[in-house]
Amino acid sequence: MKVFNVNIAGRIIEIKAFYQGVDILCQEFKTDRGPADFSVQCSLEDFEYEAEQYVADRRNAAPGPIFLEEYAVLKKVSEGLIDFGAFLMHGAAIAVDDKGIVFTAPSGTGKTTHVIKWLRKYPGTYMVNGDKPFILTAKDDRPVMVCGSPWAGKEDLGSNTMVPLKAIVLMERAEENTIKKVSFSEAFISLYPQIYRPMDPEKMRKTLRMIQSLDGQISFYRFYFNNLKEDCFQVAYEAIMER
Amino acid sequence: MKLFCDFELMDMGDEFVAVPIGDKASQVRGVVKLNKSGVEIFNLLQKETTEDDIINTIANKYDNDRTTISKYVHSLIETLRKDGLIAD
Fold first, then answer.
1. Residue A188 C-beta-side C-alpha neighbours within 13 Å
2. What pLDDT was estimated at residue A124?
């Protein structure tokens, strides 16, 4: 068994992993700091549950235990971080002038293709996380932050960093590129499916309170986009960066 | 009858959103948007009840025409039932 500490969303987490996959995945996030705020270790039941979920969601044969452990550890880390004011999102998070923007949409919509345009076109932009960033809610003087995580998607784009979150952009494919600022209540219906939703009722209530605390702290946009059209990047950039 | 699972109500200002929670939540697709009147009925459905009980409770609380209340309650319950959110 591999035992090591990682630093995610400002918290020290002890991970006990059966397989080297998680050890390699977490390399950039490892830390010598301690003691751990909490510890995660998967059981056989966790592996079986992840296998069932994988088969149900994707209608493919379940992957091997190395892959399953990566998912199971992500889930346990997500559940643990809820108690420390952070929740997991599905989205591509970038930093522009050290301010975070999270682009979110169902898988296959074109988030990664779009954010790569930002990385290429604007020199001051870098990837925070390409698939599963954590959102750390505001506390005292600290604003809402978007945080990198080891789970960075199949392109493995991301870094061990956290930046103040400026906006969440809800993406939907369309013929023409248009973007508009929306209220939290307008954004919530599309945002909700992209948030990690724990089964434990109390943790789910905490998650909902954290999501609602974003109201008034960050901006929300609805972005109808066509990655094939040349103005795709510019339309979003000018609106979100208020240029 | 009662709601299929537990829900947490979120106040969005001009409307409410009911979010499924608990071990049956994964069987519910999406969330439920409600106005203030709908929230009262929804709250009553969180425990075992009947349509008549709900109508009586609302009618006793508000000075509205009972026929109007009955239609509204029935309509909401049928909408929730069609979406699989009522356990009879």
1. 25
2. 86
Helix (H, G, I), strand (E, B) or coil at A142: strand
- State the angle between helix axes of A44-58 and A65-82 in degrees (0 to 180), rounded to the nearest 10: 100
For residue B8, list chain A residues with Cβ-Cβ distance below 8 A: 201, 204-205, 208
What pLDDT, on a 0 to 100 scale, did the predictor assign at position A242? 87
B8/A197 touch (CB, cutoff 8 Å), yes or no:
no
CB pairs under 8 A between A and B: 38
Instruction: Please tell me the predicted confidence (pLDDT) of residue A153.
Output: 84
Mutate one of A184, A199, A211 to test the B interface: name it (highest B CB count within 10 A): A199
Residue B12 dihedral angles phi and psi, to the nearest 5°: -100, 15
> d(Cα A185, Cα B16) in Å, to the nearest integer?
9
Q: Which positions of chain A have pLDDT values less than 50?
A: none
Q: Residue A55's pLDDT is what?
A: 84
Pairwise CA distance, residues A118 & A215, whole Å = 26
* Neighbouring residues of B51: CB distance < 8 A, sequence distance ≥ 6: B1, B73, B74, B77
Closest partner residue to A212 (CB to CB) among B10, B23, B31 is B10
A220 membership: H or E segment, kind and range:
strand A219-225
Please give the Cα distance from A222 to A190 (Å, whole number): 9
Tell me the nearest-neighbour CA distance from A57 into chain B, angstroms: 12
Inter-residue contact A227 to A234 (CB < 8 Å)? no
Q: Which residues of B touch A185 (CB under 8 A)?
A: 12-15, 17
**Would an 8 Å CB–CB cutoff place A204 in contact with chain B?**
yes
Q: How many Å separate Cα B55 from the centre of its chain? A: 12
Give the residue from B7, B9, B12, B24 with the most A CB atoms within 10 Å of its CB, the best one to mutate.
B12
Q: How far apart are CA A115 and CA A43, in angstroms?
A: 36
